[in-house]
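subagent[fold] <- orchestrator: predict structure for attached chain, return tokens only, no commentary.
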Amino acid sequence: MLKQRELHECHVLYNLMTDPAVFPYVRYPCQSYEEYLFITKQLIVEEEQGTCISRTILDEIGHPIGTIDLYHIHHQTGFLATWIGAPYFGKGYNQRAKEAFLAELFLGHDIETIFLKIRTQNIRSKKAVEKLPYVTLANERYEQVYQSINHSQQRYNLYCVERSDFLESIGGIQHEVAT
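subagent[fold] -> orchestrator:
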């Protein structure tokens, strides 16, 4: 479901990203394929430097359908950014991608807290993240971070995933599956 980013996937991902239902909500809204290719190269370099972790989201047959990134990694925290192409909306990919990525981050990297900033008008993302049992609204708990993401005219809600909450949640999920 997730794999490291590769440049040969950029054509498919760029075409999915430019859909009007997706484009306003991506972290890097590129205006051209060449710009998207450049940004992807930068992300690969940043991952090598340890400042971000970026993955391609795949469907069941291995086609790229979106991306998921942890960026601004600092003091065991980072920000999560995810987008999925419109043809794949409502099919459970978002939740599965997040769970796989969070498991990788919390079990394979030294990450304790993951922040998600969601534009107040992005109802689709808000509903999707609030379905996840390990995500909490963090506007008050992390007020300084909340203030820092709301310094422009664009308004965001801040959510977070703590390592302990996620691991407890997936332990419960795994127990339910086993019984």
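orchestrator: received. Logging for downstream: The longest helix spans residues 33-49. The helical segments are 10-17, 33-49, 93-108, 123-130, 143-149, 163-178.
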